# Entry
Amino acid sequence: MRRLGYVAAKRVGLETLGWALVILGIAALFLPGPGLLMLFGGMVVLSQQYEWFERRVDPVKRLALEGASRGVQTWPRIAASVLGVAWLVGLGIFWGEHPPAPGWWPFDPDVWFIGGWGTGTSLIVSGLIGLALLVYSLRRFRGRPYDHQVETEREKERHAERHRQRDERRRSRHGATSG
# Structure
């Protein structure tokens, strides 16, 4: 009985986290913040609960890994990524400092860099996430480009193993409750 309560609580917790990340990710697509990353994170969490999400995560993951691999194969691309991260963090700091509106600003000075440190912090966090992803990409793909064929085979094996484990758990639960 305790095990059932744990499983139900875990499922509710994962679903709540997954849907919250999806909703926040969609909102962050239009607001400053790591929208695509949160959206993808929510999809990954929900793919643990729903097979239809799992089928949608794999193509997105493949495209993301291909892009990450291409982005670290040449030094100019790596330098451009580092400059992008530095620009994003610098913009976040500048935004947070909330400098006074210049004379050419045609709107109310209160809407100049609206959001202050809240927006600035989300830009800084986005830059730091970008830096972490760049380091990950360098370690995983530099000199070893992404191979879709190999990854597809690994994914098939991983999915087959996950489904086998689910089936075993279901059989053991049904066998334990019927006896």
Summary: The mean pLDDT is 84. The CA atoms of residues 28 and 35 lie 4 Å apart. The radius of gyration is 22 Å.
